[in-house]
Hints:
By secondary structure, the chain is an alpha/beta fold. The protein has nine helices and ten strands.
Amino acid sequence: MGQGGASIPDEEWERFLREAEAGTSGAPEEPSARARMVARRLREEPARPEGWRAHQPARPRRGKGWYAVGLLVVVGLLIVTLFPGRVAGWFGGGGGESAPLAAESERPDQPPAREVSARPPTLEEPFRGSPAAQWGDGASELLLPAARATGWMSRQQVAQALDRTRVFLAASSLDPGVLRGERPEKAIALINPHQQDVQDYLATAFRAPSRENDPLLLFSRFAEAKVRLVGIEVKTRGRITYRQGERGAVEVTTDVTYVYPVVRAAAGSDEVARTIVRREVVMSWDDPAKVNIEPGTFSLVSYKVDTTNGGCDTFTGYLTPAFSAERAVTGSGDGPEVDPYDRSKSLDARVREGSEAGCGTATRS
């Protein structure tokens, strides 16, 4: 159910679209994706200096009498109340003990603080030492904006489109089968089959992946024979927004960061690595009176991706995370340093910074 309006049944949704299509005059236009940006990948650096925002508690002064003791207690309680996550980090936390963050409603103005704990992630705590420890799990944690009548759609139809947008995010980047390397049939079924350039890309991407036709632009997949996910949780953080687009369409923009903890597929493997993928997918829920589209599908406007520890200049169709042995051989990338958890910059700005710069270096994982 979308926020701000109840979902309507699929049958009613499709009936509405068929009726709208029946009332068209003239041939609908063929949609085309206006932008397709090649992924930039970052190598994960094995170790980094202590973060610039790491906090070290000050040494308390000696005080006289209960007044000083009471003052310290009050200050301590205030710090715990205002900064629970940071206090957990002082005592070796960061593995999920910190208070969860509220859903992201607007672009943050700075990167998340760095965890003080230098302990590596484990099978029991795969997000330890990462800002993702405070993030939500899966697509259900991504806040849907309130629906309002926009373009050719009523409030209820906008709510339905937002619901289906979130279904696409789950089917493309969170579905367990897809993460194991299966073809993302459910996600592909939501893409307008009459959008020929996108259909050509999809047909080629899974048969012969390349820089230009890389399935990882839209989908997260790991080679099951090489790595496996740790547990069932994938941490997510991002925003879903919408506006009126071309020809009265409802244009929805999704900007989401996914954090995948993985280990080698070999039995007994316990070294946890994290692959971090940030995707921006812009989709157009088009008016069938003006665009050649099947009911219940959307046209892709643009899709972009920025990946950390997922493979650098490798186009196998799968994310290929590196572990300590591989990182010791490859070393740091030759591109700029980037914080993969920094959502204060747009993905356009992030990609421009790394344009033609080779493999960058992630400042944390």
